[in-house]
Amino acid sequence: MVHAPRRRQPDTVRVATLDVAHSHRRSAVIVGPVRLPPTDELIARFTAMATVGPVTRVGLQPSTTSTRWRYSPDTVGDAVGTAVREPASDPVTLLTALRQQPGDGIRVLAAGDHLAIDFSHGLGEVPLLDMLIAVLLGSVDPADPDVWADYRHRIAPLPEAALRAIGLGPQRLWPLWRQYRRGAAAIPAGSATAGSDTSPPRPATHVGRIPADTVAELRRLRDSALPGVSMFALYTFALYQAFDDAGFDVDPTVTVPFDVRPYLPSGHSTLATFSAGLEFTLDRREGPRALHAEMTAAQRMARPVANLVVSTLKARAAIRAGHHRSQVPARPRLRLLHSNIGDVPRTGWSFSELAAARILVASDPADPSGMTVTTSSTAGALWLTAAYHDSLFDSRRVGAALDSVAEQVHSLICSR
C-alpha cells in the first residue's frame, strides 16, 4: 500500500487550556509480564507514532504556562531506555529509574518482561496509554492512517461535546443549575486550610491486589444483595472506609473522574485528557447505593461536560494570572480520588504469563493532601495503585488500608 507524502508538521501547536492545567502533574504505568521487542524496535515504533503528527500526542513538549507547545518528533527516541530487573523484584522500583530519564513528555523504560511509561498528564490519560502500549507491543501499526481517523477533526472536542450535550439537550440545564446551587451551598466560607506554599517531595506509590476468586465472590454477593449497584461504587466507598479505619482524617467528599468522550459524536475522539473530576459526598447511612444513584444522575444530566467547561474557564483565568501553587496544609485531611481503567488488555496485545499479569497506574495527586487510587483488572484480579505524599501520609497505614479493601466491600454488601 502506497501512502501519500506526509505534509510538513508545524514546529508548535496550540493545545487546550486543560492540557496546560494538567501538565503540572505526571502519571506512570507499569505493564507486565509481556514479550518486549528489542530496544531499537521499540524506538522505531515510538518514533513512527510521533512522526504521524501532534494528533498522536507523542513528540509534544508540555508547557505549564502556555497553550503553544513545541512539537519535536525527531528527539523522542532519546526518551526510550532499558533497565535490568530481577524477576522477583517489585516492579514499582522501576519508577525511580524511569523518572531519571530525559524529557518532559513521554518516557519509556523496557526492563526484562515489564514495560514502564512515565508521562505528563497534560498529554493524555487512559486512551493515550492504550494506544501507546498497543503501538509499542506491535498490535497497532502507527503507519495505518485509519488508526488516527477518529482523532482528526476540525472542531475542538470540548465545544463539540458541549453543543451536543447541552446545546441540543436544553432540558439538562435546570438539573445542572440545581446541582451547581447545591454544590456551592455545601462549601463553607473560609474552609481552606492554612499552610506553607512549599510542595512536598514527589508522591510515593503503594500497590494492593484482590485475587480473582475474591473479586468473583464479591461480585456474586453484590448481585444477590445489591443488584444494580456498580462494583466501582462499592470499591470507592470501601476505599473511603479503609483509609478512615486506618486512622487517617478522611474528607467524605471523594472525586470520581468521568470520561467526556461519550458525549462526542460517533467517529470523533481525542487522545488528550478529556475527563472531568466530579465530587460526591459519601453518606455512611445511605451507602454505595446512593453513590451509584448520584453518579448515574450526573451522567444523565451531562454534568461531566458542564464541569469540564467550568474547569477550562477557571484554568484559563489561573494561567493568565500566573497562579499555580501547591499549598501544604497545616493539618492534612486525606482527599480521595478513585479512578478505574477497566479490564486490560483490550487493544490486541496479551500478557506473556496470565497468572502474574498486572498493570499499575500511579497518578500524582492534584494537591499535597490528595490520595489518588487507580484500580485496574487483569485476569479477573483487581490491582489498586495509590499515589500520595509520604511526607504527609504514613506508607504502612496506606498499605494496611489497601489490604483491607476486599473485607470492607464484603462488610458493605452484607450490612445492606
Can you characterise this structure?
This protein is globular. The chain has 416 residues and is an alpha+beta fold. The chain is 34% helix and 21% strand. The chain has two domains: 140 residues, Chloramphenicol acetyltransferase-like domain (Chloramphenicol Acetyltransferase), CATH 3.30.559; 233 residues, Nonribosomal peptide synthetase, condensation domain (Chloramphenicol Acetyltransferase, 2-Layer Sandwich). The strands form five sheets. It has a five-stranded mixed beta sheet.
Radius of gyration equals 21 Å
Helix/sheet category:
alpha+beta
From the 3D coordinates, which CATH architecture of the largest domain would you assign?
Answer: 2-Layer Sandwich
Q: What can be said about the biggest beta sheet?
A: 5 strands, mixed
Quickly name the level 1 CATH class of the largest domain.
Answer: Alpha Beta
Count of runs of 4 or more consecutive helical residues: 12
Mean pLDDT equals 88
Question: Widest sheet: strand order?
Answer: 5-6-7-2-14
Percent range for helical residues? 25-40%
Total strand segments: 16
Domain tally: 2
Distance between the termini: 60 Å
In CATH, the homologous superfamily of the largest domain goes by the name Nonribosomal peptide synthetase, condensation domain
CATH domain fold name of the largest domain: Chloramphenicol Acetyltransferase
Organism: Mycolicibacterium vanbaalenii (Mycobacterium vanbaalenii)
Protein name: Acyltransferase PapA5
